[in-house]
Amino acid sequence: MVNNEVGSLPATTAVVSNNQIGKYISPIGATILSNVFSATANGFGKAFYQPREFTVLQDSYAFTFKDKIIDPNDCYAFILGVLNKIYVKYNWSNKSGWNKIKNEYIKLPIKENKIDWTFIKQINAELEAQHIAELEAQHIAELEAYLKVTGLKNFELTDEEQKAIREYDKVAGGGD
């Protein structure tokens, strides 16, 4: 029996945000999964990648590839894009339960009559790099706005402050 008390183990529910983590529960009695996909099973449908330990609590399910040699970490961005194209048609009046989802078909790139995992991994790496670049740009813009509002955007260090930084760099192993 799963201990549904508040705890440290992330648990998926029918939420479509926060990487589908709707609650934290005790790991006692829980089936702990990681490096798999999860999806909502009630209401609006959406798929997620769960790289870290979690458990399925309610109104969701977890799944991975039948072929255990395929690492979801190498292809999750690509696969989520394909899966979530299916899930957009589900909502509260047309729920995304397993009985419906298991009959859906997704299109994957094929090479020599086999799924082209090399291509998928390449696209996945490009998607990850693009996402990281977008996050960096967003954070830089937020930092720039903060510096401007606080008056810290354009400032000059005094000679004493510059000397203190050089001394710190020497002690910390950086700098000259």
Question: Care to describe what's here?
Answer:
With 176 residues, the protein is α+β, with helices and mostly antiparallel strands. The chain has two domains: 1-107, Alpha-Beta Complex (Adenine-n6-DNA-methyltransferase TaqI, Chain A, domain 2); 109-176. 36% of the residues lie in helices and 18% in strands. The chain contains four helices and eight strands, in the order ββββββααββαα. It has a three-stranded mixed β-sheet with strand order 2-1-5, with no helix packed on it. A three-stranded antiparallel β-sheet has the order 4-3-6. The longest helix is centred in the C-terminal third of the chain and has 34 residues, at 117-150.
Task: Calculate the terminal CA-CA distance, rounded to whole Å.
Answer: 60 Å
Strand content: 15-25%
Order of helices and strands: EEEEEEHHEEHH
What is the CATH homologous superfamily assignment of the largest domain? Answer: DNA methylase specificity domains
Largest sheet geometry: 3 strands, mixed
CATH architecture label name of the largest domain: Alpha-Beta Complex
Number of strands: 8
| CATH topology category name of the largest domain | Adenine-n6-DNA-methyltransferase TaqI, Chain A, domain 2
Total domain count = 2
In terms of structural class, how would the helical and strand content be classed?
alpha+beta
- At the first level of CATH, the class of the largest domain is Alpha Beta
Taking pLDDT < 50 over at least 5 consecutive residues as the criterion, the unreliable ranges are none
Spatial order of the strands in the main sheet?
A: 2-1-5
> What does the radius of gyration come to?
23 Å
Number of helices, counting only DSSP H or I runs of 4 residues or more: 4
Question: Could you estimate the helical fraction of the residues in percent?
Answer: 25-40%
Shape annotation: elongated
Mean of residue pLDDT values: 90
